[in-house]
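Friendly challenge for the regulars: who can give me the structure tokens for this chain first? No prize, just bragging rights.
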Amino acid sequence: MGDNGHMANPYAPKPPGSSAPPRDHEDPPTGPPPDGQGSDAPASRPPERQKDGSRRRTPRTPVDPAIMVPLSRRIMLFALVLLACLLLSTAPLPWRMGSVALAAAALVLGGTALRRAWRAKVRGALIVAIAAGMAVSVTLGLATLAVIPVWDIEMARQTCMDGAITHSAQIGCFTDYRDALETYQDSLTG
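First reply, four minutes later:
Bragging rights claimed.
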């Protein structure tokens, strides 16, 4: 407590001639460790424990804004191309194949964004999100490519569904599609 009954400011400069207040924690020991390890000990120490038992971590250095601006633009472009790939993968069949090109572009953009983020020492959720987006682009590309062997069956289903107005007509289209897929699978297995 200060002279007037209020708590003293611990950050204020000490008046000349005053003694330093008692410290709540001890300074880390300097010099060689007491167990005789001497200069053979590793240079880095494990983080010291605080009073509550948790370890004290050194704060991360912030990423340079001059690096983050182009990196965030690259990530935004990656996300937009990935979104376009997702939307195009639901389009009718001739146009659906365009999502393969967009998936490849998203994979390249994601790879460069991931490399730049790693070099800029950006860690955490951003790295995971970029990697997950790259996995999604690979999955979308492969799922779209899987349509190629059954192109004629898919086109027939698509034509049937375009003309199906009633629910029973849609069920008929689905039944024909399923039967055609089973016939194709039987032809593959022999």
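The chain has a mean pLDDT of 82. Residues 63 and 120 are 7 Å apart (CA to CA). Your move, everyone else.
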